[in-house]
Amino acid sequence: MFHHCVCAGNSQCVEALLSHGQDPDYEVSHLGSPLYMSCLHRHPACSKILLHRGASVNVGRGGDSPLHAAVRQDSVDQVSVLLDYGADVNIRDSNNQRPVELAPPGGKTQQLLLTFEVSPRSLCQLCRLQIRNLIGRSRLTLLPLLPLPSLLTQYLEHT
Fold first, then answer.
1. What digits encode the pLDDT tens for the residues 95-105?
2. CATH for 2-119?
3. Where are the domains of the chain?
4. CA-CA distance, 112 to 15, in Å (whole number)?
């Protein structure tokens, strides 16, 4: 059911299921992770929800990562979101190809990946990713309850 909601791009259903304890990384062997399916079917809203709720950005299906799926679909929005959440641009698929090697030549997706490869992530982004990893997926929903300034909470929530 969860994968069906993701494939259909029903972000409200995805949000509701996650709110009731659905694992954002629940993997079905022949389908892959929900994030992978979201990228495969070009649903950036679902991808954002899954990543916001702590889905593993590099877990896909077999040797394919969500970034590989988004690049194959030539979805610049998806690729951008995945990179914001720490997707590995050097990860190789089952054919030993990196995402940039799968991008349509001269397209926006290829340009985005090439630009990203030569410019390192900002310290701000690296810190956010590290803090979110340390907090852990199960506790990300508790961020608004911490006695932190709202600006810092928004930064950590990546909103």
1. 999 999 999 99
2. 1.25.40.20
3. 2-119, 120-159
4. 29
